């Protein structure tokens, strides 16, 4: 696997690190393929029960590498193909039954916003900025931005973001519902370390609990748009029955019942 994405698995936690820090982790062909390979491996391994996504350097992800586009792409066809490669990784994350946390310090812009939206729980730094910025260079949203942004913040706010060259502050992103938590630090490097530490703490919380149930809850929410209301109710009923049959749920339900009975005495 290319070192454009660092990949490791430790006690059920797969960690994926975007690793083009000198280009603000903007996507080149190398990073696109490494991203696709790392995400598909992480979501297909039986020993992975939680995923953490972070990035090296000063920023999370600046989207596509515009200089690389200008210097290597004679027309739009290679860009469409490259977006398709990245989209395979986005689908791997969003369609999996594995919860994904992002540690998104620094700037997240363009397609980087789509990468952030493909995770399920985002932690950012107090200095972080998030935005679209596609139209600044005459391009349109990709990498799931048009698919996920309105779901996350509502269509009116999504339009406000894609129709302006606006970067949201961390506080605005939290208020809009784009991110779950803000972690501040004494400087940019310290803040990035604290954001990563908090994201890993969240992932370890999932692993210490009923990781399978968290993953199935994520799957139910993420896959809901493909079903009617009645179909979603049926899928919820099927899923909770399947969960009840797992050894983990059996043990947890029995422990809860025993503790409740003890309190009632």
UniProtKB/TrEMBL annotation:
<comment type="similarity">
    <text>Belongs to the enoyl-CoA hydratase/isomerase family.</text>
</comment>
<protein>
    <submittedName>
        <fullName>Enoyl-CoA hydratase</fullName>
    </submittedName>
</protein>
<dbReference type="Pfam" id="PF00378">
    <property type="entry name" value="ECH_1"/>
</dbReference>
<dbReference type="InterPro" id="IPR001753">
    <property type="entry name" value="Enoyl-CoA_hydra/iso"/>
</dbReference>
<dbReference type="GO" id="GO:0006635">
    <property type="term" value="P:fatty acid beta-oxidation"/>
</dbReference>
<keyword id="KW-0456">Lyase</keyword>
<dbReference type="InterPro" id="IPR029045">
    <property type="entry name" value="ClpP/crotonase-like_dom_sf"/>
</dbReference>
<dbReference type="GO" id="GO:0016829">
    <property type="term" value="F:lyase activity"/>
</dbReference>
<dbReference type="InterPro" id="IPR014748">
    <property type="entry name" value="Enoyl-CoA_hydra_C"/>
</dbReference>
């Amino acid at each position: 696997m290319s070192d454009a994405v660092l990949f490791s698995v430790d006690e059920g936690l797969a960690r994926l690190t975007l690793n083009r820090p000198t280009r603000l982790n903007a996507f080149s062909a190398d990073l696109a393929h490494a991203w696709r390979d790392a995400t598909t491996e992480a979501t297909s391994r039986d020993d992975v029960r939680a995923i953490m996504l972070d990035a090296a350097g000063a920023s999370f992800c600046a989207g596509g590498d515009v200089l690389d586009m200008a210097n290597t792409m004679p027309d739009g066809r290679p860009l469409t193909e490259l977006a398709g490669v990245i989209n395979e990784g986005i689908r791997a994350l969003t369609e999996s039954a594995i919860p994904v946390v992002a540690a998104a310090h620094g700037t997240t812009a363009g397609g980087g916003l789509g990468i952030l939206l493909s995770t399920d729980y985002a932690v950012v730094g107090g200095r972080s900025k998030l935005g679209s910025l596609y139209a600044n260079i005459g391009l349109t949203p990709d990498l799931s931005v048009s698919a996920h942004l309105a779901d996350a913040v509502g269509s009116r706010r999504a339009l406000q973001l894609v129709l302006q060259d606006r970067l949201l502050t961390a506080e605005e992103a939290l208020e809009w519902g784009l991110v779950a938590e803000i972690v501040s630090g004494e400087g940019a490097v310290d803040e990035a370390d604290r954001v990563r530490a908090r994201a890993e703490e969240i992932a370890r919380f999932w692993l210490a609990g009923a990781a399978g149930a968290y993953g199935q809850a994520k799957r139910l929410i993420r896959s809901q748009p493909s079903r009617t209301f009645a179909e979603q109710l049926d899928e919820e009923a099927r899923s909770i029955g399947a969960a009840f049959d797992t050894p983990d749920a059996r043990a947890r339900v029995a422990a809860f019942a025993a503790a409740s009975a003890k309190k009632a005495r």
